[in-house]
Amino acid sequence: MILIPHLVIGAVIAVKIPYWPLAIVLAFLSHYFLDFFPHIEYSIDNIRQRRWRKIKPDIFKLTLDLIIGLILIFSIQQLTNINPLLILATAFFAILPDILIILLLIFPKNVILQKNFYIHQKVHLLNNNPPSSFAKLRTTEGQRKISNGWRVLTQIAFVILGFAFIL
Ligand SMILES: [Zn+2]
User: Fold this and answer.
1) pTM, to two decimals
2) Domains held by the chain: number
3) Domain range holding 18?
4) pLDDT tens digit string along 37-84?
5) Of 14, 52, 65, 70, which one's alpha carbon is 20 to 30 angstroms from that of 80?
């Protein structure tokens, strides 16, 4: 999934449950819940396959994703006046499972990172053909039975829902 809906839902959790320990745990779990729904994903294959010279477009997509996400969570903070540190923390924990997947590329033998990877892939039930093993993580996969339109729609729906919850 792109990071934007994860960041928004993470921030919304901070607004609704401004109690640090619970908010952080729920934000972390929300990642797997959101990934259960069909969603678009942009390729970061160049990062995955360590083609460092071609890495720029991947970094660009990631940065854009993060910047838009940060603008949205900043707006949520402005609208609600919740502790900005708490919002940043829950937003961070809401994208942590994806960060752990990137880290797995650097530390392939780390057991915790491997566990996260398997759980993360398991929740992609409605996403056809997610990489089923770590070996396949480095290759491009992904048949699309659910159209991209629907996949984009679920992302927008989560962002709108998130804002609807706090207004
Ligand atoms: Zn994910």
Assistant:
1) 0.87
2) 1
3) 3-166
4) 888 888 777 877 888 888 888 889 999 999 999 999 999 999 999 999
5) 65
Residue range 118-148, pLDDT digits in tens: 999 888 876 655 555 555 554 445 445 678 8
Distance 17 CA to ligand 1 centre (A): 22
Expressed in angstroms and rounded, the spacing between residue 49 Cα and the centre of ligand 1 is 18
Ligand 1 centroid to Cα of residue 31, in Å, is 6
CA of 81 to the centre of ligand 1 (A): 28
Ligand 1 midpoint to CA 32 (Å): 7
Q: How far is it, in rounded angstroms, from Cα 128 to Cα 125? A: 7
Distance from C-alpha of 83 to C-alpha of 97, rounded to nearest angstrom? 23
CA 109 centroid distance within chain: 23
- The residues placing their C-beta within 5 Å of ligand 1, an ion, are 35, 98
Structure tokens at 123: 């929740």
CA 136 to centroid of ligand 1, rounded, Å: 16
Per-residue DSSP letter, 53: G
